[in-house]
Design brief:
By secondary structure, the protein is α/β, with parallel strands linked by helices. It is built from 15 helices and 25 strands. The chain is elongated and about 100 Å long. The strands form six sheets. It has a five-stranded parallel sheet, with helices on both faces. The structure holds S-adenosyl-L-homocysteine. S-adenosyl-L-homocysteine binds next to helix 5, strand 9 and strand 11.
Length: 540
């Protein structure tokens, strides 16, 4: 009768974090083999299993003993903390079996039971530091040459991986973590967040938030995992967070804008994505290369080796930590009431947009700029120096004013400017446009905007809830006439605050108005058209 090997990862150490299957497997076994401390950690789960506990360094003899006992017919549990397949017993047990010519079909049965590894348990205590590409590196050079470990740290540091260092330090191995810090500092800022977690989910659990520069001023030991963030990782309220992606796009008052599905992977939104056309061309040329002569193959191999050398080799002079460029998006116009560009403004635009940026004329009397840059502040300063009015792009509040007949009908201009000053660029559930026209002609179409105000006979008329696009587009409803100039700013302010507070994300103002029926005391009137107009999506 053949026995069975159960290689069990029991997680960080707490009872609740041991999986159901791991518990069952412990129950099923006749014998438990493991490092003393680990056997103690699962003491509460043992019934009448025979225990073989050994010292830390006797891993190979533990694996050999386990195989021997299983071959003698026993069901043997080999336990590892965390996951048995991560610097644990799983590989060793296989190695012992393979040495003996073991085959899956005919040999003793083996089951590896997964557990929560330190990278995961420690990350959960730190916040969410492992959100992006990450790797584990063990700093133990007992079984691995230090030279190789060094190369791995170098490669991980260079490629901006989040790194979880296992076995960072022990009584005798103290220099490794110092070296690791030195290598990381070649590529990452000294302020890079670092989390030190000792004994996660065990009695003497300790969590320390520090950074690359100061990490060695804290206690690091055998039971510590050192988690080093990538170039985007940040601290927030004593939590270590790595964003899900790199910053793709930002505008005046927001650091990041979510991409709509259709914008994904487009060059203008994610300039670093692999160029699909280029990839197709390259794969064609790869096929060609495969058909090439041997000498040519040898040449490409030499090139590849040279590249590898550059990544792994001693010389790293070519590599410097680069801040990642993002697309800075901003809308510009000559002014609220002013619709005339000056030559200096035109030249400034050409200069800041350069070869790589784009300028787009929008339906909103603005020019939208998209500029790849790591220094938006420089661009903002130049645009401001040319007296541009800058507006953020996205779901924000913008004002569209008429030109007040070149300033001749100037009475409403101060109120327009006041509104811009107080509310311009404010975040909204969905983009919100306010149209202001200086006379009853309303020739700039104020009544066609989400909110429209028209200055007439020394007072303002207020229109709410136009549907600005679609086959069923309609003007806003007139909700008040003759509002005193002194009141208009406050009224608009209250309306948009109510929308900001109660509007659902992505809900356009006209839908919001229809849903809530009353905004700041102004009633919605249901004027459903006789013919039901189906919305026609783009392309229909
Ligand atoms: N198989 C284990 C790793 C064993 S190597 C796993 O998957 O987690 C031992 C190293 O793991 C320790 O030096 C430490 O860096 C890390 N480690 C294991 N358990 C830990 C815990 N509870 N808290 C913090 N680090 C831990």
């Amino acid at each position: 009768m053949k026995g069975k090997l159960l290689v069990i990862g029991f997680g960080p150490g707490s009872f609740e974090h041991i999986t159901q299957r791991a518990r069952e497997a412990i129950q099923e076994s006749d014998m438990i083999i493991g490092y003393k401390t680990y056997v103690e950690l699962i003491q509460g789960l043992l019934t009448n299993q025979q225990i073989i506990s050994t010292g830390m360094t006797e891993e190979v003899s533990r694996a050999q003993e386990a195989v021997k006992q299983a071959e003698a017919g026993k069901t043997v549990a080999v336990i590892s903390s965390g996951d048995a397949g991560v610097y644990g017993m799983a590989g060793l047990v296989y190695e012992v079996l393979i040495e003996k010519g073991w085959k899956k079909e005919t040999g003793v049965e083996l089951e590896v039971i997964p557990g929560i590894s330190a990278i995961n348990s420690c990350a959960s205590l730190l916040g969410a530091p492992v959100m992006h590409d990450a790797c584990t590196i063990s700093l133990s050079d007992h079984l691995t040459p230090w030279e190789l470990i060094e190369k791995r740290i170098e490669a991980a540091a260079q490629a901006d991986f989040v790194v979880a260092f296992y076995n960072p330090k022990s009584g005798r191995r103290t220099r490794q973590i110092v070296e690791a810090q030195r290598i990381l500092l070649k590529y990452r800022s000294p302020d890079t967040p670092v989390g030190l977690v000792k004994s996660a989910y065990r009695d003497r659990e300790e969590v320390v938030m520090t950074n690359l520069k100061d990490m060695l001023n804290h206690e690091i030991g055998m039971l510590t995992t050192v988690v080093v963030g990538n170039s985007s990782t940040f601290f927030y309220d004593d939590l270590m967070i790595t964003p899900r992606g790199y910053q793709r796009k930002y505008t005046l008052n927001q650091t990041e804008q979510p991409l709509r599905p259709h914008q994904r992977l487009r060059k203008e939104a994610e300039p670093w994505a692999l160029d699909q056309e280029e990839a197709v061309k390259q794969s064609a040329s790869t096929i060609e290369a495969v058909q090439n002569t041997r000498e040519e193959k040898a040449a490409s191999r030499a090139l590849a080796e040279e590249a590898l050398q550059a990544i792994l080799g001693e010389s790293t002079s070519a590599v410097v930590h680069q801040p990642i460029e993002s697309i800075f998006e901003v809308a510009v116009s000559p002014g609220l009431a002013n619709k005339k560009f000056t030559p200096v403004q035109m030249t400034t635009l050409a200069e800041v947009v350069g070869e790589k940026g784009t300028m787009e004329y929008t339906p909103d009397h603005q020019i939208k700029l998209q500029i790849p840059t790591a220094q938006p502040d420089v661009i903002i300063k130049k645009l401001q120096a040319a007296s541009f009015l800058l507006s953020p792009v996205g779901d924000v509040f913008t004002i569209k004013a008429c030109d007040f007949c070149d300033g001749e009908k100037s009475d409403a201009i101060p109120h327009t400017e006041e509104l811009q000053k107080r509310l311009g660029g404010m975040d909204m559930p969905k983009e919100l446009k306010l149209g202001i026209n200086g006379c009853g002609m309303a020739c700039y179409g104020a009544v066609q905007e989400d909110i429209g105000i028209v200055y007439r006979k020394g007072a303002f008329d207020l229109f709410l809830g136009a549907k600005t696009v679609g086959r069923n587009a309609h003007s806003g409803q007139i909700v008040a006439e003759g509002i005193a100039p002194d009141d208009i700013v406050e009224i608009v302010e209250n309306i948009i605050h109510e929308y900001k507070e109660k509007g659902h994300p992505n809900e356009r103002f006209h839908k919001f108005f229809k849903r809530v029926k009353n905004v700041y005391g102004f009633d919605y009137q249901d004027i459903t058209p006789k013919i039901k107009v189906e919305p026609a999506p783009c392309g229909d």
